[in-house]
């Protein structure tokens, strides 16, 4: 048993879009940075034109650079982690995610992200702090054991605990039983929590997350002739005192994935600024004449956004809307199987025991960045009232504070790891050495 | 007795009693020379090479050295008497690890027997110094900047390099003006302690230019204005305007000639709907506020937290231990 009440635990929530990390007991994570990393294969670096401005002329001296020795098939590569490193354009740098379909597919990237969080952001030595890690509700046993191995073998963590995202969100709101609707970057998950445990069979997942909406917005803007210029591709010049002009810059060795990443960052900001869920299902004719909203792009160009303000968010409720957005043909293949948010909620509750359905309907929790969208709570509550059984008393709950809603998984972890009664539940290093990684299933059910 | 305010930087330690409208009385180097155990100083060439840096990049690394330094500051410098120690406010760099904070609290209460403690972040204190409670702080302090040498044969010590940097470095008007210094620029002559005369040409502009074009030194990073704009773009859009329009620049390096003008010019070229605007310090504040704005902010804050009993008292510490710092100082 680990006696961990002397030192603060570290809470890490590695989501599909953002990694959140910080000390247990605090009300917000200290570190928030992208879950994707930049990667340059070593072979490419040698061929790069070192004379070119902005090329990787001194790769050995970079901050946040780690050499990752991975499988022979991957060869050596340099990984660039964190907003600052990722925000600097480099020739031949690809943008990679550690996840594929919500499951970790590249542990080297996960390792580099954790390393960045601990040593660059929090400035801690991981062997001095117990680690509480948030994990997806459908995480596999193999993934959990790999996590434990990495934490104990490489980081020498004194203790570890894995907790499901939905359980942590439930804790953050002070409830043992609830239905958690977690709208993250890569997906939306609906998970019932009963007495602190996820009811696994009723978990529902949809690939429509915040990033999908951002992509829809980008394609819609492109179809109207609006081009989002990545920040690295232009600069302002003063041609006369007080008079400025934007000059395009050419970087032919920039990868497509990096360009897309930079454009997404801007489109995501547009989405967060102007989008809100419509009160009723989106109707093209009803919204064709609504007033436009202005948004100034980083290059100084001002764009006007009209119906998209309501159409894009409504995709969460009516996925078939995607087909009316030009350029989204690739989504057509999976469209028939994707259900809207209200349907996901009702189907999930209907898979639970009859005795707890009433309680679940009255404790629907919204969490995650995508769920922080304006008017989403009101719309979801309205739709559920219309579609749920007559006897159910529907109540959708969400923190009024956008930060708390966005970071509710992390906050739940912060609360859990600082509880006195939790301290005996840690999976300690000595238990790992005695029983092995598979013991995590017993210690962290 | 007034509370003491101590701002320990990588290069300079600023300390005095909490009188915000005055320059701190003690501004001394943080770097120390190491004496042999018998107290004697060996010949000067050897002693020059045995230096101790208690603070590295803003964080305390050598606790024994910092204890000696603080002993000198508090008892010799500020006139504290054993048995009659006062209250103290420390500045913290951003992201100070919790273990560091606890260790400092423990040192102050157990070794120095202080009667009260408070700590606050340097960035926040710098905003207080100019009368702001919301905004963005750009702190450019001490760091390892290496000057390229025009004369490879010249043997030059790090302390001489520091002095030359402080005397001569400046910012070019803009990027184009910097490029022109490659063809012609004013040359300064400097006499070294051993009598040698060296010439300093373009190097003096390169020092300042590196802040705006880090790639000159082979660093893959954006210039400071770009970094500022990018950092602010990650917060909620509602707050971006307020933060950018209340930008405070501080730290010794920002005193460089031409820095503020260059910063403002780069701001007007930044890719941001809201351009960073520098806040001028109030007129009643001492000159050269940028050198020690965190200290001034600390002095202002000390006037509030100690009289209102928001600080850690000796009784608090005795009851809870060092972890009290996380609940009472934020």
UniProtKB/TrEMBL annotation, chain A:
Q: Does the keyword Cytoplasm apply?
A: yes
Keywords (A to Z) from UniProt: Chromatin regulator, Cytoplasm, Developmental protein, Nucleus
One Gene Ontology cellular component annotation held by this UniProt entry: SWI/SNF complex
Q: Which residues form a coiled coil?
A: none
- Entries under SUPFAM superfamilies matching the protein: Actin-like ATPase domain
Q: Where is the composition biased (Low complexity)?
A: 51-64
Q: Which InterPro entries match?
A: Actin, ATPase_NBD
Q: What is the annotated signal peptide range for this record?
A: none
Protein's cellular compartments: Cytoplasm; Nucleus
Q: What Pfam families has UniProt attached to this entry?
A: Actin
Q: Where is this region: Disordered?
A: 47-76
Q: Has UniProt tagged this entry with the keyword Nucleus?
A: yes
One GO molecular function term of this record is: chromatin binding
One GO BP: regulation of transcription by RNA polymerase II
Q: What does this protein do?
A: Involved in several developmental processes including organization of plant organs, flowering time, anther development, flower senescence and fertility, probably by regulating the chromatin structure.
| Similarity section | Belongs to the actin family. ARP4 subfamily.
What is this protein's record name?
Actin-related protein 4
What gene is this protein translated from? LOC100785066
UniProtKB/TrEMBL annotation, chain B:
CDD domains (UniProt xref) = ASKHA_NBD_AtARP7-like (cd10209)
A Gene Ontology term for the protein's cellular component: actin cytoskeleton
- Mind telling me which Pfam families this protein's record contains? Actin
Show the SMART domains listed in the entry: ACTIN
Q: Which SUPFAM superfamilies match?
A: Actin-like ATPase domain
Tell me, which GO biological process terms does this entry list? anatomical structure morphogenesis
Q: What's this protein's family per the entry?
A: Belongs to the actin family.
Task: Provide the protein name.
Answer: Actin-related protein 7
Q: State which gene encodes it.
A: LOC100814978
């Amino acid at each position: 048993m680990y006696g961990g009440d002397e030192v603060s635990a570290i809470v890490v929530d590695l989501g599909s879009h953002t990694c959140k990390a910080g000390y247990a007991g605090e009300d917000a994570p200290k570190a928030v940075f992208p879950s994707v990393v930049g990667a340059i294969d070593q072979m490419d670096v040698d061929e790069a034109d070192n004379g070119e401005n902005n090329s990787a002329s001194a790769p050995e001296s970079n901050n946040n650079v780690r050499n990752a020795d991975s499988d022979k098939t991957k060869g050596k590569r340099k990984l660039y982690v964190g907003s600052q490193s990722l925000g600097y354009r480099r020739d031949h740098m690809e943008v990679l995610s550690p996840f594929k379909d919500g499951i970790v597919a590249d542990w080297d990237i996960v390792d580099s992200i954790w390393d960045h969080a601990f040593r660059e952001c929090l400035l801690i030595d991981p062997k001095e702090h117990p680690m509480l890690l948030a994990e997806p509700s459908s995480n596999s046993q193999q993934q959990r054991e790999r996590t434990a191995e990495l934490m104990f073998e490489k980081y020498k963590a004194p203790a570890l605990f894995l907790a499901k995202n939905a359980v942590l969100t439930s804790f953050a709101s002070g409830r043992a039983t609830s239905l958690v609707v977690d709208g993250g970057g890569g997906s939306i998950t609906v998970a019932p929590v009963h007495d602190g445990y996820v009811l696994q069979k009723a978990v529902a997942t949809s690939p429509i997350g915040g990033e999908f909406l951002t992509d829809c917005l980008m394609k819609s803007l492109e179809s109207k002739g609006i081009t989002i210029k990545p920040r690295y591709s232009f600069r302002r010049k003063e041609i006369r005192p007080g008079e400025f002009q934007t000059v395009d810059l050419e970087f032919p060795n920039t990868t497509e994935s990096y360009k897309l990443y930079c454009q997404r960052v801007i489109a995501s900001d547009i989405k967060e600024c102007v989008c809100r869920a419509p009160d009723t299902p989106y109707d093209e004719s009803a919204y064709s004449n609504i007033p436009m909203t202005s948004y100034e792009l980083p290059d100084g160009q001002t764009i006007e956004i009209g119906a998209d303000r309501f159409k894009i968010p409504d995709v969460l409720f009516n996925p078939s809307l995607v087909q009316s957005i030009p350029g989204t043909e690739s989504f057509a293949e999976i469209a028939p199987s994707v259900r809207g948010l209200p349907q996901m909620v009702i189907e999930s509750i209907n898979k639970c025991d009859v005795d707890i359905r009433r309680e679940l309907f009255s404790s629907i929790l919204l969490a995650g960045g995508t769920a922080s969208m304006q008017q989403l709570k009101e719309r979801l509550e309205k739709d559920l009232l219309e579609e749920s059984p007559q006897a159910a008393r529907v109540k959708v709950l969400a923190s009024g504070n956008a930060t708390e809603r966005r970071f509710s998984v992390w906050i739940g972890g912060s609360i859990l790891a600082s509880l006195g009664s939790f301290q005996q539940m840690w999976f300690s290093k000595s238990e790992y050495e005695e029983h092995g990684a598979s013991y995590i299933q017993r210690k962290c059910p | 007795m007034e509370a003491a305010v101590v701002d320990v930087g990588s290069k300079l330690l600023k300390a005095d009693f909490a009188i915000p409208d005055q320059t701190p009385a003690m501004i001394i180097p943080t770097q120390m020379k190491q004496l042999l155990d018998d107290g004697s100083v060996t010949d000067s060439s050897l002693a020059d090479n045995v230096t101790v840096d208690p603070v590295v990049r803003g964080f305390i690394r050598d606790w024994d050295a910092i204890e000696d330094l603080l002993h000198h500051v508090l008892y010799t410098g500020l006139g504290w008497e054993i048995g009659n120690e006062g209250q103290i406010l420390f500045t913290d760099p951003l992201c100070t690890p919790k273990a560091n904070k606890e260790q400092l609290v423990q040192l102050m209460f157990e070794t120095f027997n202080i009667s009260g403690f408070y700590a606050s972040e340097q960035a926040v204190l710098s905003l207080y110094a100019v009368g702001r409670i919301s905004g963005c702080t750009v702190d450019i302090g001490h760091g390892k900047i290496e000057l390229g040498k025009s004369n490879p044969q010249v043997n030059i010590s790090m302390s001489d390099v520091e002095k030359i940097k402080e005397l001569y470095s400046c910012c070019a008007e803009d990027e184009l003006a910097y490029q022109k210094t490659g063809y012609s620029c004013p040359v300064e002559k400097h006499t070294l302690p051993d009598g040698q005369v060296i010439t300093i040409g373009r190097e003096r502009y390169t020092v300042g230019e590196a802040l705006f074009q880090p790639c000159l030194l082979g660093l893959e990073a954006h210039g400071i204005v770009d970094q500022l704009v990018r950092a602010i773009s990650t917060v909620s859009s509602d707050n971006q305007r307020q933060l950018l329009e209340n930008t405070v620049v501080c730290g010794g390096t920002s005193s460089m000639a031409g820095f503020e003008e260059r910063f403002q010019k780069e701001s007007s070229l930044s890719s941001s709907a809201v351009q960073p605007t520098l806040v001028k310090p109030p007129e009643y504040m001492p000159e050269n506020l940028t050198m020690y704005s965190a200290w001034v902010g600390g002095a202002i804050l000390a006037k509030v937290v100690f009289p209102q009993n928001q600080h850690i008292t000796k009784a608090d510490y005795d009851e809870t231990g060092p972890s009290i710092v996380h609940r009472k100082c934020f």
